[in-house]
Structures are given as structure tokens and as C-alpha cells.
């Protein structure tokens, strides 16, 4: 027999269309807040144009060689991963335009967000090519492979899953850009990625506030969406060529790893929304909350084991 509390019944009746409608006011408020705090910035100002010169091929310039790059080895790997992630914007736009629609406040947000994200790849590619930080031929070939694959959210069941995913993903992207800048060894790169990271933070705030509203109007469904997304989280760039190897290097390099994922991405959002303390959930919501709590504890244990392994490896490297 299914136990149906009045609370659960209330949550259960939400369709995606009804939720989009119910959240429209919040989207409008958050959109206006975002437009009020987002500062205009120019990608061309972050690029060291006078360092640039022609490449081989049509312009008969100098071919790229690794010794031209001022960026650290780990910085080069992370910059390519982060740029390819940004490059897949057409697929992300398609995903959110399909789920959120292109009308009203939702549509205005979808287009504005897309325009802001477009700036990220522009700034990064201009910087990488002008400063000869990475192999331009490999970068272009990877871009073709990655974009030809497209991107689909792992959680296509509902718009709440999408909102939950992007709330965590925008923060993950912010942290990854920030740490890449720090580890790049080039202050010009660091400054550009810090600027991009500021945008990603505002995107995270938008989606996090939307998720807070969803937790109020449909707490059980929102809780289940958060659990589903957190336990199966993957970075948006997971399909790119060589991702596993690059991700492993970035983990050891302190750009993105289990500890960072737990402490700097999942925990801040969960704590801000008080997800694990939300009372009076129905049976499904309560189960999701408990599973989420268990998952976070398990993830922390894994992160402790990872930290130990990483420290040993770094100590061994320092000696050799
Ligand atoms: Fe971005
Ligand atoms: Fe973003």
C-alpha cells in the first residue's frame, strides 16, 4: 500500500509546465537582481594582443611549439578542458531553451545567460592563441570532436533536475576556472579566469535561489532532484577527448578533485539552502534527504582517502 501524506500529494501534482509557471515570478525577480549586479566587461581587454604573431599555414608564420607556452603543464591541460567545456554552449543552450522555454522571464534569462557564457570562450580562445599557451591544432581538433558529440543532461526527467544540476555545475565551473588561473603560472591568465569565475558565481547564485524557491513550493520533488543530481554528478565536459586522463591530472594538481567537489561545490550549496535540515517532508522527500546525507558522508570519506594518496604522491614527487 502506498502511504500518501497530504504534503506528498501536493508535491506530486506538479508537472514541469506547472512548476515553470509557478517559478516565473522568482525567475523575473532573480533576472532583475542579476542584471543589477552583473557588470559589463570586455573580453578583448583581457588578451595580451601585442604578444601575438602569425601561425604557419595560410599566413606562413611560425608553427606552435611547446616551449612558446608560459603556462604550466597542469595549466595547459585545465585550460583546454575548461575551454572545450565552454565551447559546447550551443548544446547547453538547446538543453535549457527546451526545458525552460524561450518565453517571458525564463526566455529572457536563457538568452542573457547564453550571451554571457559566449564571452567566456571568446576571451579564453583569444588568450590561448595570442599567448601561444596551447597547441592550436590539437585544440581545434578536440573542439570539433567534442562539439560533434553534443551534450545532454544526465537527468532528463524534469526541469527541477536541470535547475539542481546547473546550481552545482556553475559553482564547479567557477572553482575550476579560479584554480586553473591560480595554477597557470601566468598572471594574465589568472586575471582573465578570475573575471570569468565572477560570472560563473552570479550564474550559480541565480540557479541556487531558484532551487530555494523550488524547495519551498515542491519540497519533495526538489529534494529528490537534488539527491539524484548530487549522487550522479559529472562535469559537463566529461565526453571530451582524453577527459579521464585530464581529470586525473587536474585532481592531483589541485584544480578539481573529490575534496574540492565536496568542500567547495556541494557543501556550500547544500548548506546555504539548508537542504539536510528541511523539516516536514513527505516519505519520498525524507528518503531522498536521508540518502543525500549518507552520500555526503561517504563522499567525505572518499575525499579523505584521496587527500592522503595525493599528499603521498606530491611528497614523493618533491623528493625526486
Ligand atoms: Fe562559462
Ligand atoms: Fe556560467
From TrEMBL:
Its organism's taxonomic lineage begins at: Bacteria, Bacillati, Actinomycetota, Actinomycetes, Kitasatosporales
Q: Where on the tree of life does the source sit, at the highest rank?
A: Bacteria
Quaternary structure?
Homodimer.
Q: Per the record's keyword annotation, is Transmembrane included, yes or no? A: no
Q: NAD as a keyword?
A: no
Q: What does this protein do?
A: May be a desaturase involved in mycobacterial fatty acid biosynthesis.
Similarity comment: Belongs to the fatty acid desaturase type 2 family.
Q: Which Gene3D superfamilies match?
A: Ribonucleotide Reductase, subunit A (1.10.620.20)
State which pathway it belongs to: Lipid metabolism; fatty acid metabolism
**Which keywords does this chain's UniProt record carry?**
Fatty acid biosynthesis, Fatty acid metabolism, Iron, Lipid biosynthesis, Lipid metabolism, Metal-binding, Oxidoreductase
Task: Give the record's cofactor note, including how many are bound.
Answer: Binds 2 iron ions per subunit.
The protein's name:
Putative acyl-[acyl-carrier-protein] desaturase DesA1
Where is it mainly found? Answer: other
Gene Ontology MF terms: metal ion binding; stearoyl-[ACP] desaturase activity
What is the required cofactor set for this protein?
Answer: Fe cation; Fe(2+)
Which positions are annotated as binding Fe cation 1?
86, 117, 120, 200
Task: Locate the residues binding Fe cation 2.
Answer: 117, 170, 200, 203
Q: Which GO terms describe its cellular component?
A: cell surface; cytosol
Query: What's a GO biological-process term for it?
Result: fatty acid biosynthetic process
Localisation per UniProt entry: Cell surface
Amino acid at each position: 500500500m502506498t502511504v500518501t501524506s497530504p504534503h506528498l500529494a501536493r508535491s506530486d501534482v506538479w508537472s514541469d509546465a506547472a512548476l515553470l509557471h509557478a517559478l516565473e515570478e522568482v525567475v523575473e525577480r532573480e533576472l532583475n537582481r542579476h542584471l543589477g549586479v552583473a557588470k559589463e566587461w570586455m573580453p578583448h581587454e583581457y588578451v595580451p594582443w601585442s604578444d601575438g604573431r602569425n601561425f604557419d599555414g595560410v599566413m606562413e608564420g611560425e608553427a606552435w611549439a611547446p616551449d612558446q607556452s608560459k603556462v604550466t603543464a597542469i595549466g595547459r591541460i585545465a585550460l583546454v578542458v575548461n575551454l572545450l567545456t565552454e565551447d559546447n554552449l550551443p548544446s547547453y543552450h538547446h538543453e535549457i531553451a527546451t526545458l525552460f522555454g524561450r518565453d517571458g522571464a525564463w526566455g529572457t534569462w536563457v538568452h542573457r545567460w547564453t550571451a554571457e557564457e559566449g564571452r567566456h570562450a571568446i576571451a579564453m580562445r583569444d588568450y590561448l592563441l595570442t599567448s601561444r599557451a596551447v597547441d592550436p591544432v590539437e585544440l581545434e581538433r578536440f573542439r570539433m570532436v567534442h562539439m560533434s558529440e553534443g551534450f545532454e543532461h544526465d537527468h532528463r526527467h524534469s526541469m527541477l533536475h536541470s535547475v539542481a544540476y546547473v546550481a552545482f555545475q556553475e559553482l564547479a565551473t567557477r572553482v575550476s576556472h579560479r584554480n586553473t588561473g591560480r595554477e597557470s603560472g601566468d598572471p594574465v591568465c589568472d586575471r582573465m579566469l578570475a573575471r570569468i569565475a565572477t560570472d560563473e558565481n552570479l550564474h550559480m547564485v541565480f540557479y541556487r535561489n531558484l532551487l530555494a524557491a523550488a524547495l519551498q513550493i515542491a519540497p519533495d520533488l526538489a529534494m529528490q532532484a537534488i539527491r539524484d543530481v548530487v549522487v550522479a554528478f559529472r562535469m559537463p565536459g566529461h565526453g571530451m577527448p582524453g577527459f579521464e586522463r585530464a581529470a586525473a591530472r587536474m585532481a592531483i594538481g589541485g584544480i578539481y578533485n573529490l575534496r574540492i567537489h565536496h568542500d567547495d561545490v556541494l557543501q556550500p550549496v547544500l548548506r546555504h539552502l539548508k537542504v539536510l535540515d528541511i523539516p516536514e517532508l513527505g516519505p519520498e522527500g525524507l528518503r531522498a534527504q536521508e540518502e543525500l546525507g549518507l552520500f555526503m558522508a561517504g563522499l567525505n570519506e572518499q575525499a579523505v582517502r584521496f587527500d592522503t594518496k595525493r599528499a603521498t604522491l606530491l611528497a614523493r614527487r618533491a623528493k625526486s
